[in-house]
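I have been asked to look over a protein record a colleague put together. What it holds is a sequence and that sequence's fold in token form. Please read both lines and tell me whether the tokens look consistent with the sequence. I do not need a full report, just your reasoning and any doubts. This is what I was given:
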Amino acid sequence: MADHRNGSAQAANGKAGAAGTAYSIDLNAFQTRLKTFYKHWDEHKTDLWGSSDAIAVACPPPSEDLRYLKSTALNLWLLGFEFPETIMVFTKKQIHILGSQKKASILESVKKPAREAVDVEIVLHVKYKNDDGTALMDAIFRAIRAQSKSDGRDTPTVGYISREAPEGKLLETWAEKLKNTKFQLSDVANGFSSLFAVKSNEELTSIKRAAYLTTSVMKNFVVPKLENVIDEEKKVSHSTLMEDTEKVILEPSKVNCKLKADNVDICYPPIFQSGGAFDLRPSAVSNDDLLHYDSASVILCAVGARYKSYCSNIARTFLIDADPLQSRAYGVLLKAHEAVIGSLRPGNRLSAAYQAAVSVIENDAPDLMSYLTKSAGTGLGIEFRESGLNINAKNEQIVKEGMVFNVSLGFQNLQSESIKSKGKHFSLLLADTVIINKDKTEVVTSVSSKALKDIAYSFNEDEEEENPSAKVDANGAEPLMSKTTLRSDNHEISKEELRRQHQAELARQKNEETARRLAGGGNETGDSRSSVRTSTELVAYKNINDLPPPREMMIQIDQKNEAVLLPINGSMVPFHVAFIRTVSSQQDTNRNCYIRIIFNVPGTPFSPHDANSMKFPGSIYLKEASFRSKDPRHISEVVQSIKTLRRQVVARESERAERATLVTQEKLQLANNRFKPIRLSDLWIRPAFGGRGRKIPGTLEAHVNGFRYSTTRQDERVDIMFGNIKHAFFQPAENEMITLLHFHLHNHIMVGNKKTKDVQFYVEVMDMVQNVGGGKRSAYDPDELEEEQRERDRKNKINVEFQTFVNRVNDLWGQPQFNGLDLEFDQPLRELGFPGVPHKSSVFIVPTSACLVELIETPFLVVTLGEIEIVNLERVGLGQKNFDMTIVFKDFKRDVLRIDSIPSTSLDGIKEWLDTTDIKYYESRLNLNWRQILKTITDDPQSFIEGGGWEFLNLEATDSESENSEESDKGYEPSDVEPESDSEDDDSDSESLVESEDDEEEDSEEDSEEEKGKTWEELEREASNADREKGNESDSEEDRKRRKAKSFGKSRGPSLSSSITKRPKLR
């Protein structure tokens, strides 16, 4: 253990140093942090640094004990290594360092960077073996006095860390001499706390990796270990569990964590507590008592790991056959813990975060207030507890972006009267590592679940058999679901009941999460829809001399300058073709041909060049022009030429606009001789490259930081950066004709001339050959059997090649530099799949571990489960052959996704899948108008929160409510809770939230058509309609009814009322 303690000098840049090896100080980091130190000293000299003229830091000798000292933290932060028995004194002009010859030789390399960074001179005072160092100390004191006198002060003020007692002969001598110098001494611990509080990106990366290791140990080792011990009723002591867990932390490969063992260490010996004796302090130790897991037992586990000296922490409570008080207390603690995390936002005070927890407990369980810990955690970094960042009721420090906290909250020494065993007294504890970002608070240990269903275990079989119904706690709260029993499933309550209880818990969590997000303006993640595309200046001719020489007074097309010249009042007037909206021709009975040109003008909706036109607000614009000709052939050629030219210009401008919105990607680093690219050949790509000519397959290669797909054609190449990949999928061919790799991206890229977020590479595993030879072959035809065997072999061979490629890329992504990307190929779970219609055609939709996808038919469907707010299953009821699924996203500005026509036989499977992935779902009998619902929520989020959040969708709740509650929830209540009526008036009144997309589309089309100039065909159609209505109104009405019924299909015609867009209600 010695080589993992503070006594070892460990490199912050990952190059560990041991005795006899050359230390490598990161000079760039040294310069940056030295500048930060001196700047912080200048800005906060009086309030944090005690008006110090010099700052003295003495680092003690190595120790076997785990300890956190600010002197050590400064060494690690500034130099990347710990330098034991070294004294550093900072002044405005010099940095004096007193240490051994070996340390001085290492520090020679920082002299020049220090001079360049802050214009200070580093003076090394070398202490030899038999020297007590007093003469060197006197030299440092003389330099401090000289610097102070030059600044006009007789008595210098020297800052030091008063709480760190001197250790070893050298430091004791230094402390004694410092006190006898008659310098004014000032404690600067608060200055260092503030200096270390805000972390750089490199520091945050180290903390995230430490958290990744911590959660991996908790999730992949501690929890399975405890489950195994309890399930097999083993006798294991707390100290044994502590030792086993510590070994796993120091060897990350044991939990599939690909971090170098040299860079990791423990923050403290892992803590395991049970059996009524609990200590919630980080200094607690795991005793030699056996793990206690009888009924109503509580087990506390806390694990902390360091990566490159940066700490992370996690603590979880596990309940065994919890009694009502334990379940209730844990639910309140979980809610309070989330409240603290939600309050840690830039600009808030730390006391406000603690007060958020107090408010939750005072509202939900005031009887537990006296048991709450006095602190909700501390700052976290190189030090496990950053003293200036305690989250308590008195700390008025401001939370800043880049700070990191160990949010630790608990109830100490609760007592349950119903428990007579050893566990009568119990405590609860939750802790997570939290990073403060600009937009959101990131819980980097959230992978290890703390939901009640995941930490509560039920083993009391006899009691469950006697009383299978769920108990209600003292406050009448709904019973909470426990984790599935490990020993036997025979005594478990029904799956439907478990699902219902879990969904009730999810509803509570989801409403709290949505309320926090809406209260904090949580729709910032949505894409702004108000952005307007700014086009380039479109000018046909820069001056009059560029016009082509005049010919006959007739319409001319200038292809080169993309202009149309029109004869107006004896002059040829040029118009850029992009400003022409439509062009059409018409021939009358006298064989006169007319050409009609309609232009884009200011104030016309959907005009792509309106911004350019508005530069001349006082001008008069030409809206349309008509010309007559006796030559129909010429008119036809002119119309065709204008349309072709306009189509080319619009396509070019659209592609230019698409490319202008792309996010700039990093440059692909090609593999070199040391790293051979991982290659997969003969692949096709979707979307396909544009252009003419025969399509050809290409090769996909994995390079240093991304993929490259290329064909033998020079212009057919696509680069996909690893950092731009949001999800990666591998789908082998089973019932499909293709094996594929699919990448869903964060930002759009261009494939050919197409802008896309989804890129797919595939191989057809079977040749699509049709036998036109005539007769039917026998099932026992040897040729037929041989052909089928060849197809199977080809499919298996392709699947194996893809699998090998995927495995090698997964190994590449497992390297430390890609840990922050969290990349791994996901594979669809076919057994959970179901048919549905997300776009226009029915497809087979399949869940993966993180998404819901359909990757065979285009357009592709990729829905990230983490972005889903809720799912509403619509048209669910007896007698229905199918139903619809509406997915509502956390970004309320984003349109909902609806998957139609899912067979009712898939309903139970979908419910089970949604429940196991912790997605809250509701059911309704009709389709809802989600645009109106989301608009109502975003317009008045407070009313939505006060009205119970999403519970207006809960059919069980709404069916039992009174008419008063129905009226109060009118903005959210689906129409199927109203009394049934056959009258047309009732149907039309209840359509406010029932989906009417057809009507919306028709209305929008009519609005847009009214704004456009009408073509000859439209004018002719309007005239004929007017004549027909004047001539025979009843016939036109019959025709309309007939056409309307036909458009909706024969099967639905008889049951339709006048409200066509409504689906028939269930009787």
